[in-house]
Amino acid sequence: MNSFTIKDLESLTGIKAHTIRIWEQRYNVMRPKRKDTNHRVYDNGDLKHIMRIAYLYRHGYKISKIAMMTDEQIKQLSLEEGGQKGSHLHQVYINQLVEAMIDFDQTKFEKIFHNVLLRMGFEQTILKVIYPYMERIGLLWLVDCVIPAQEHFAANIIRKKLMVAIDGLDLPKEGDEKFLLFLPEGEFHEVPLLFTHYMLKKHGCAVVNFGANVPLEDLSFYTERKQVDHIYTHIISNFPQRALDNFVRDLGRLFPGIPVTISGPQIVRITPPLPDNVTLLMSMEEVLQYVRRKVVL
């Protein structure tokens, strides 16, 4: 079972640690354990409980009213509140996915995913729920709240959903643009790459996906034998600066006649100038323009 400090709860809920202490003392909303140093320590159940309380508090419920509810009433009301206010429903789903991940509850995780899918469709599920959920997981990593097994547990479920969705799309026609997708050596975060694969195929492009941890020599071997109109990759891992810049330069050197597109949170660190054939997608809007085959201005 994970343990969290009050500063962790502040990071994950947006509720100041000072406010959480007041809620505990005045309204008895939680009963944290204490370390030998007398510092508060919270467990998985505490995290889920305060996430629900924070959600209700942000949507107009007074803490004095919330404090009078049972844990089950708080849980149920957070679900009902999300259902009544569509603009807040995404956050409810994200919180539920985090809870399921923390508990390694595969049945719950897949049920939530299925419910979102029925309401929103696949593309919007990924954009409005799964990507923000992954950002939340990133924050959980930053405060050491998620162990690798939990992250792999959740990512593998999402990965399987994306692969099924990709397989369900019609095959492209002969003559359509041909894309080669890959992740560089040392990069294993496949979900954004798979979503790009899904979107490109949905919009009529032929896609070959080499997957994660791919040496550039393998790409070079393929492009010497097969037609490739575009190369795309996505970088999440925090590579050393020199390795990152060398990787981008190698893309220009090895594939001078093929447009190469890179996205991901780490591309802001790439040192200019870029090779002539390399383009960076700096925002989700630009990524969506790219995968929908619209010109990025």
TrEMBL record:
Residues 3-72 form the HTH merR-type domain. Pfam families: B12-binding_2 (PF02607), MerR_1 (PF13411). Keywords: DNA-binding, Repressor, Transcription, Transcription regulation. GO terms for molecular function: cobalamin binding; DNA binding; DNA-binding transcription factor activity; metal ion binding. This is B12 binding domain-containing protein. SUPFAM superfamilies: Cobalamin (vitamin B12)-binding domain, Putative DNA-binding domain. The keyword Transcription regulation applies. The keyword Repressor applies. It comes from the Bacteria.
